Amino acid sequence: MNKIRVGITHGDINGVGYEVILKTFQNEEMLSLCTPVIYGSPKVATYHKKAIDCQVNFVVKESADEIEDGVLNIVNCFGDTELKVEFSHPTEEAGRAAFVALERALDEFGKGFIDVLVTAPINKHTIQCEGFHFPGHTEYIEQKVGEGDKALMILMKDDLRVALVTTHLPVSRIAESITKELIEEKLQILNHSLKRDFALDNPRIAVLSLNPHCGDGGLIGTEERNIICPAIDGMMEKGIKCFGPYAADGFFGSGNYKMFDAVLAMYHDQGLAPFKALAMDEGVNYTAGLPIVRTSPAHGTAYDIAGENVADESSFRSAIYSAIDIVRNRMRYDSCHAHPLRKQYYEKRDDSDKLKLDQIAEEEI
């Protein structure tokens, strides 16, 4: 199979984006796995390269349609414009630079010039502008290239995958935003992604509760009884193997997450806090459910260490690996399911998993 063309946005130029990008491709073996192209500024890349004393070389292109194999390419998104780098400081100029690079990358994805997108971290406040009124990459990319499909945020490392029902919302709005229909939608996207993007034939999904102790039978919340359980039951009837709800406080500490292919958390910190405790260094943020394959490192701009040559590129490198694996899995899945044969038999559903995992949920409560 041909090498995957990996589009990379430079993110916030005052953070560690360029540092983790350049360090990743300092290992020339990466160039044998993919054809990388950074959407950014050659001048800013050179500034970061000197700051961290990195020896990686790159070639400058006007479009990803011109990129070369075997080298690190940079599409110049700014012409001769001088961008001011101020390490560790959030600035409007850095926000605009992040947005311009993202816009250019998505435009060239639409033209078929790149196969996947890997985004370096942005500052969600400074990137806000006339064309960007979103709480993060996920929501913007969904609107820009989603073609009507809904996005699902998945944090992952190896076999640990944590997806979210709600993402960038104030805590005060979480409970009112969680509905049976929304949980069902996320479960369907997650189930399909596990099959198509991760090559899992019969995935099992754990669903976390919203309230402590799963609501204690309604004493401290009724969302489990009125919303989450009906959603799980409805999806089970459609053949999606989802179980729970499980009390969130002990689910990861007990190791029960290892029994599942993915976990669906109700809100951002419920899923990301335990995930980052277990997999911070090599964790990857994946935007599932969309026509584009987009990944990013699980960390942010890391202003506190920007320009100091101490940023760990492991998470960014894993984001590259994951994007390549996912797009190849999609190719295989789509090829295998292009002309399916008509079923000649009826499947007999086995409920033994449900009985066993329901028992675990009761014990955790």
Oligomer: single chain
- The Cα radius of gyration reads 21 Å
Task: Classify the helix fraction into a percent range.
Answer: 25-40%
Largest sheet: 12 strands, mixed
The CATH H-level homologous superfamily of the largest domain: Isopropylmalate Dehydrogenase
Question: Would you kindly provide a written description of the structure presented here, covering whatever features stand out?
Answer:
This protein has eleven helices and twelve strands. With 365 residues, the protein is of the alpha/beta class. The chain folds into two domains: 172 residues, Isopropylmalate Dehydrogenase; 149 residues, Isopropylmalate Dehydrogenase (3-Layer(aba) Sandwich), CATH 3.40.718.10. A twelve-stranded mixed β-sheet has the order 3-4-2-1-5-12-11-6-7-10-8-9, sandwiched between helices. It is globular. It starts with a strand and ends with a helix. The model has no long low-confidence stretch (mean pLDDT 93).
Write out key terms for the chains shown.
alpha/beta, Isopropylmalate Dehydrogenase, 2 domains, 11 helices
Concise synopsis of the structure shown:
This protein has two domains: 1-149 and 290-312, 3-Layer(aba) Sandwich (Isopropylmalate Dehydrogenase), CATH 3.40.718.10; 152-280 and 346-365, Isopropylmalate Dehydrogenase (3-Layer(aba) Sandwich). It is 37% helix and 17% strand. It has helices at 17-26, 42-51, 92-110, 137-145, 174-177, 180-196, 223-237, 248-251, 268-279, 314-336, 352-364, and strands at 4-9, 34-40, 58-61, 72-76, 116-119, 152-157, 160-164, 204-208, 241-246, 262-265, 284-288, 294-297.
